Amino acid sequence: MLEVSISAGQIFYGQTRRRTDVPFDEDLRSRTRSLAARLHELMRSGVTPPAIYDKRKCERCSLKPDCLPELPTKRQSAAGWLDRQLESALKVES
Question: Residue ranges of the domains in the chain?
């Protein structure tokens, strides 16, 4: 698009205040294109895939409270979980 070659970037982790170098090699570019295509498929289908809990990753993630990765996906849905939380909160207020 701009005829500029960008060979690397950095990810900054706010909590640890550290930067990590990321080389923009062909493997990363290919994986990025593939994942972007998958994201477009999911958006068109209207299906949200279940979160996969990984203690090493999830415990450091700022989105954990929104993602609910520990929610049992086979027995409950996020909507059901939210309904139960609201019911519980309303009972406490009464």
Answer: 1-49, 50-94
